[in-house]
Amino acid sequence: MIVKYIGFGKLVYLYRNSNQDLMQKKLTAYTLVLAAFLTIAVFASYSAKNVTATDSILPQIVKPVDLNKPFDFAGEPVPMDNFDVRERLDRELLINTYWHATTMLHIKSMYKYFPVIEKILAENGVPDDFKYLAVAESSLRNEISPKGAKGIWQFMGNTGEYYGLEISSEVDERYHLEKATKAACDYLKGYKKRFGDWTLSAAAYNMGGTRLAKDIQTQRANNYYDLSLNSETSRYVFRVIAIKEILKNPRAFGFYLDEDQAYPPMSEYDLVEVNGPVESWGDFAVEHGTTYRMLKVYNPWLISTKLTNKAGKTYMVKIRRRG
Predict the structure, then answer these.
(1) CA-angle at 219, arms to 213 and 223, nearest 5°
(2) Which of 19, 272, 318, 323 has its CA 20 to 30 A from that of 300?
(3) What is the largest CA-CA distance in the chain?
(4) Beta-carbon neighbour count of residue 275 at 10 Å?
(5) What count of other Cβ atoms lies within 10 Å of the Cβ of residue 207?
């Protein structure tokens, strides 16, 4: 390329040499191709390293749940020949299968609470499958719902009192696992007598018996799977069944838990009879060789720092056994 200056830094005329220009174009094209190749190679290498690293850290295979098997709740079959039923159950199975942290916590917690719940269900003639209803209700935690339902079985205040649970500013037996489970048994058996099967009893537990009876009357159907209920109850029994399937066989759904990783049952305790007032549960805990925290963990139904107990009722308080 020939360059000629005219004037002092004012005008520039460029006269191109054709051979040199051709060589320049070839060199430029070669440079661009080489740069593109190197860029692709770098990104490909980075991507491959990323995939390998991710695979080694969190391997995951996402696939559908097999629906080609019989399902039931409390011994009552689920009509899997109904496409609507299959899709509704499939939804809950997939959600709970791939809801990793929550489902793993369910699996860990069932070792802690199921031994107590199973025993009381059996003693009261309620099918064992209803222990999974407690998981659906509260994730086996003493939760408080936005509507004010409390405890593992999620009793509202008036319902809890109707079934014999004490609810006051100092004691709330909705948090008492044994007593609340017994109350839930009575509640469910009442619905079984009223509606005729356990599946409808579970639905009524969620939405209330009055509303369920009205829907049955309006829709001229008396089978849960044939009823068009509110969105929550329409999913409710399917969610319980999905939880049952996963918790019965966690490894089939990709959840691996060694026995020593589960939460242990709180079975190591002594019972202390209390039939008078307690001015300070903190002092009471120290006197009985435990801590205020452990007293509350073993007795979450004690919701105050003291117990007035003007009526002189008898309470059995669990004290963690020192090992």
Answers:
(1) 70
(2) 323
(3) 115
(4) 10
(5) 16
Write out pLDDT tens, residues 105-114: 999 999 999 9
Could you tell me the end-to-end alpha-carbon distance of the chain, in angstroms, rounded to an integer? 94
How do strand 269-274 and strand 2-6 relate by DSSP bridges? unpaired
Tell me whether strands 269-274 and 76-77 are parallel, antiparallel or unpaired. unpaired
CB atoms within 10 A of CB 162: 13
**Joined tokens for residue 310:** 């003007």
Q: What is the pLDDT of residues 80-96, one digit of tens each?
A: 999 999 999 999 999 99
**What percent of the chain has a predicted confidence (pLDDT) above 70?**
81
The residue type at 264: P
DSSP code of 98? S
Tell me which residue has tokens 């009261």. Answer: 124
Helix, strand, coil tally for the chain in percent (to 5) = 55, 10, 35
Q: Look up residue 8 and give its two tokens.
A: 């002092």
- pLDDT above 90 coverage of the chain, percent: 78
Q: Which residues pair with 45 in a beta bridge?
A: none
Q: Are strands 11-15 and 2-6 parallel, antiparallel or unpaired?
A: antiparallel
Which residues have CB under 8 Å from 18's CB, separation 6+?
none
Q: Where are the domains of the chain?
A: 2-57, 72-261, 269-320
Q: Which two tokens stand for residue 207?
A: 């939405």
Q: At what angle do helices 231-248 and 131-138 cross, to 10 degrees?
A: 120
∠ CA(104), CA(89), CA(106), 5° rounding?
Answer: 15
Residue 321 token pair: 């056994």
- Could you tell me the two tokens for 116? 């107590």
Domain 72-261 has CATH 1.10.530.10: yes
User: Is-contact 129 73, C-beta < 8 A?
Assistant: yes
Strand partners, 11: 6
User: Is residue 250 within 8 Å of residue 256, measured between CB atoms?
Assistant: yes
